Give the backbone structure.
Amino acid sequence: MTTLTDPPKEQFRLSMLLYDTRYRSATIQVIALFGFMLLAAWIISNTIQNLEALGKPVEFGFFGEPASYDINQRLLEYSSRDSHLRAAFIGLLNTLVVAVLGCITATIVGVFVGVLRLSNNWLIARIMTVYVEMFRNVPVLLWIVLAMAILIEGLPAPNAFRGENPTATMDLFNSVAVTNRGVYIPEFLFTRSLGDIHFFGASSIRFDVSLDLLAFLIVLGGSIFAMRKVSANAAAKQEATGDRPTIWYIQLGILFVPMIVLMTALGLHLGYPELKGFNFKGGTHMRNSLIALWLALSLYTAAFIAEIVRAGILAISKGQTEAASALGLRSGRTMRLVILPQALRVIIPPMISNYLNLTKNSSLAIAVGYMDITGTLGGITMNQTGRELECVLLLMLVYLAISLSISGVMNWYNNSVKLVER
Amino acid sequence: MSDVSFVRTEMLPEQAPPASEVGVIGWVKHNLFSGWFNSILTLVSLYAIYYVLSGVLPWTFQSVWNANSLTECREIMMATWGSTHGHACWAVINDRWLQLLFGFYPSHLYWRPILSLVLLLVALAPVLYSDRVPSKLLIFSAIYPFLMPFLMWGGTIWGPISAALGFVVAWGVYSVLSKQLSELIGMIGAVVAAVIWWLVLSGYFTGAMDSILPIGIEAVQSRQFGGFMLAILLGVVAIGVSLPIGIVLALGRQSDLLIVKYMCVGFIEFIRGVPLITLLFVASLLLNLFLPPGTNFDIILRVMIMMTLFSAAYMAEVIRGGLAALPRGQYEGADSLGLNYWQAQRLIIMPQALKISIPGIVSTFIGIFKDTVLVSIIGLFDVLGLANAIRADTAWNGIYWELFAFIGALFFVVCFSMSRYSMYLERKLQTGHR
């Protein structure tokens, strides 16, 4: 007969740190942490010694000094007497401008191309394949530099627009001038403007918000809210009686009438660019660097987005389309109600990483002289002050913050459209 | 029962399909003109193709191949066709193609990069086409990483040999310690021994052997490297080294060891959150600050380190995707067979996870290869940097299409073949579970 006895009480021995799986993981982690801290301490001590030898301890005082360089493409007012911090802020806004513009264009072109690649028209599908392969397999920097070269060398100089018999003319009813110094487009002007509000007084991140724009946005928001209300009413009526009242003209009226009234009240008119002296004056001037960067980044990213869209649509099984047609849905509604909602779930995560890539690739602006955050903080400011360590680390932090916030926002959106699984 | 049958008993002969549904006509009807919308699309695209080709073809073929400057090119164009528009001046490529390919590498040593490239293909063959090439060639693939730097940079042969000896030392320490004590101690000992060898002993070894038996070839300075050769060099190193690092990082990120996991997550997310250009700034400006005072090592080596770290982070995410896609049962099956962690990874998990992530791995490869042009921003003369230099030259000032078409074609060929290879590999490894 056997008797149950307690197992012998285990004594902790040093060798168990290596041989017992319960303790071994702790051993490995402590060693890894120790090694990591050793490496970090080594790097930091080296850096301190090196910086001491060079005679420039880490400090950020240089941000207050005047930048004394100019930024020609900018959203806010800035002069070369402003501080380095202000220059970096202007650069950050420029990065965001090109990133937002690029993401919008890339999405539009990408979706268009992706859908056309699946077209049953053989020729169109092939042309789109050529476009996608051409852009995906050549570095984006090459496209950016090429776009810049074309804009500078291939377009007419402003003086070609002059004289009795000009060699170049303005486009779109004399409103847009495409020159080798950039594109001049009409700007919105208000005769009875509401003025601006200033934020943050005289600090480096001061900015103005146009009250006209604010009024426009408020009216637009109100109109959209009213439109949804009307549409909800119509739906309720359809539920109750079976008739859907015709509301599209009411909707259009709600959208446009308040806007037109507001614009007339503010005295909206367009300011056209005009040739004065050697250059165009008036209108909004988009520099070549911005256009080249925007164009190249969006076309390059669009090639990737096209592949994502195509894969997303292909991922939806044919049975879904067939089931939708069996239910009697027309092809447009099949796309809108059945295919797209499912395809979007596949499309969104890789789309996020492409938006991130576009934003990070916008740092290549430095190759064409567009003054984004890399061109200001990591370019001229760094070269003028000689503070490589501070500038590069800050630059990385800024990009890290941008990336993390984009992925945060997009992941939140992704979670809101994601299928709720068990 | 009568034997009258109301069902046809013999088959009718097959009728030929209508002429409009088969052959070229049928194909055109179905694929190009299947409706009014498709017909319009077809006509528009035909016009677009005509428009592009009518510009590009004469430009490409009615071109000048021999001239010393753009002005001379234009004079020849005026004399031949009566206009300077619509004709390429390939003379710039004819004049500078060696420079675009090799940078400032001494011209009497061009055989060395070419030999390295050929040997690279030989070394890659057993890896890429494992079913057609004898696997004994893998020994050469293992030697190649030490042979290539010797060929490219030249100098004494003892440098690469002592670098290789570091691995031999590590392996020796590992096999002794893991038998005597434990595997973990063996691994740690191997890493420590290798680091001590490389940092402390290898210098003496190289110096001593060099004075005893000086074997070497003419040394080439790093600043003479350039052109497309530099892109291939950086790309190959970054790709080759980042794959193992990426695997380790991915395993670390998936591991149960919290501290290791968060160290890997922090590294991966940091690298993926910043643009490559900032890491190249680190390579060109900061890396020397991080090392002991007085060390000043080569800019190309520094760029290689940063590009490797960059692509390792992306690789880790791709492989993590593959690991996450494996069904839980595979891990549990490995556990139930009694395999330990490394055995399970090597025999069960990794082969499947890597297979799933092939498309992602190859697109990371393509991405990193394309990203090598960024080194022109920190002042290395890679192919784009040279193109900018040529455009700044008074003789060729104003030329751009020809140069960029040439560079674009170089990159296109390499990247496109990589993506085709990945498709081939996917098909080959497809075990048909779909």
Remarks:
- The two ends of chain B are 53 Å apart (CA to CA).
- Chain B has three domains: 24-92, 96-105+222-429, 155-217.
- Chain B has 17 helices and two strands.
- Residues 270 and 313 of chain B are 9 Å apart (CA to CA).
